[in-house]
Amino acid sequence: MRITQKYTLLAYAGLLLLAGCDKSGQDVAAPAAEKYVFSIPANLAASVPTPERNPTTKEGILLGRMLFYDPVLSKNGNVSCATCHQPDKAFTDGKALSTAGVSGKPLLRHVPTLANVAWMQGLFWDDGAKDLESLSFGPLTHPDEMGQNLKELARKLQQHAKYPAMFRKAFGTDSITSAAIGRALAQFQRTLISGNSRYDKYIRNEAGSSLTALELNGLVLFKEHCSSCHTSDFFTDNQYHNNGLDAAYSDANEAMEYGRGRITHAPEDIGKYKTPTLRNIALTAPYMHDGRFTTLEQVLEHYASGVIASATLAPELQKQERLGIPLTQAEKESIIQFLGTLTDEEFVKNPELQPVRE
Ligand code: HEC
Ligand code: HEC
Q1: CA–CA separation, 220 vs 165, rounded Å?
Q2: In angstroms, what is the span from residue 135 Cα to ligand 1's centroid?
Q3: Which of 56, 44, 6 is nearest to 26 (CA)?
Q4: 281 in contact with ligand 2, CB cutoff 6 A
Q5: What is the CB neighbour count within 10 angstroms for residue 251?
Q6: Nearest ligand 2 atom to alpha carbon 242
């Protein structure tokens, strides 16, 4: 039987109280859980997209934050989400391909940042996940990531000294389910909002904010050459493109190298990857879906003179006789200076996004 979702909204002493039922009959949010009010930088968006079945509450975020940093989630008790998504690296890991999972085997793709993940319209490099609520089951169960059996995990958390009370506070239920684990992790991840870099303050015209002449020149060049794909203040168009990294794509490992084509099976999508955000890019080296470039200089070198032809290469990169984007050395340097203004120290140091101190 399908029980329709229902929320009771009660305003009381400045708090919004949320209660509700899920398809499975499980509480969506505990009756007393306090609705979380996002603070969103004005140039980003007016609201945070949130599914109705998982309203964001203070209790849910705290639980998600505990879980995100807790290696108890992995099979061997050594790997947490934050092993690969580290706050000081804007929730990346500094590796081309991580070997930090429970098997020690290298992963097939590079760890992307989680900054502003709430607004990402496609998840993973190829849109291989439906939503943040379900995405966590990927890393949790993957044999080369956390290697966990979800039933076993729920059982483990049920016996934990702290978690049962936290799940009760967040979701009003005494039985811990994998759905609730996914929801709590999603709630925390929606709070990973980055929009207070020097660039943002400059764009918002905040007192004392400015960019240097070199950075401003880089911004102009960036708008001209890069922003068709790295669009808006999210620095992504949420689309899939082939930016000329390879001539051919192997179908080994479940066609991982097909990129978006792995999901759609369409020949026109082979070799296309999601445009990654460039926020905090100076902190998230190495670069590209396989981490092949160690520096931003190498990335700019790629766009200027390393673009390789293949069937699905982006039209923007074949407008000139020579493939790629024509850039002088000075122009490349200006763009790199501009990219440096996207580093958001407040985000990477935000105490509310760090491990919970007990
Ligand atoms: C062993 C390393 C590792 C661990 C542990 C790990 N991840 Fe990831 N994560 C990755 C990699 C690699 C990708 C990119 C995979 C792809 O796109 O195919 C990724 C992608 C993601 C994305 C998609 C971001 C985007 O840009 O689309 C989210 C969200 C995410 N991980 C959350 C989590 C959460 C939550 C956990 C813990 C439950 C976790 N990860 C644990 C390596 C890891
Ligand atoms: C045709 C669309 C397009 C254009 C134009 C474009 N990019 Fe990209 N960019 C992408 C895509 C797609 C990726 C990811 C490709 C992959 O990993 O396979 C990417 C990756 C990157 C990365 C690595 C990000 C990371 O987290 O690994 C950087 C840095 C970057 N681009 C900067 C630029 C700059 C600077 C310009 C302008 C000189 C530019 N891009 C122009 C689509 C584009």
Answers
A1: 53
A2: 8
A3: 6
A4: yes
A5: 12
A6: 12
Q: Whose CA is nearest to atom 19 of ligand 2?
A: 275
Tokens of 92: 């990346």
Alpha carbon of 353 to ligand 1 centroid (Å): 17
Residue whose tokens read 């989400």:
81
What does the block give as tokens for 131?
Answer: 């939503």
User: pLDDT tens digits for 43-76?
Assistant: 999 999 999 999 999 999 999 999 999 999 999 9
336 lines ligand 2 (CB under 6 A): no
Could you read off the pLDDT of 277-295 as tens digits, one per residue?
999 999 999 999 999 999 9
For the Cβ of 201 lying below 6 angstroms from any atom of ligand 1, the answer is no
- The yes-or-no verdict on residue 232 having pLDDT over 80 is yes
Residue 136: both structure tokens together:
């966590």
Closest ligand 1 atom to the C-alpha of 110?
A: 12
| CB burial of residue 67 (10 Å; 0-12, 13-18, 19+) | buried
Rounded distance from Cα 136 to ligand 1 centre (Å): 8
- Whole-Å CA distances, 152 to 28, 156, 159: 22, 6, 11
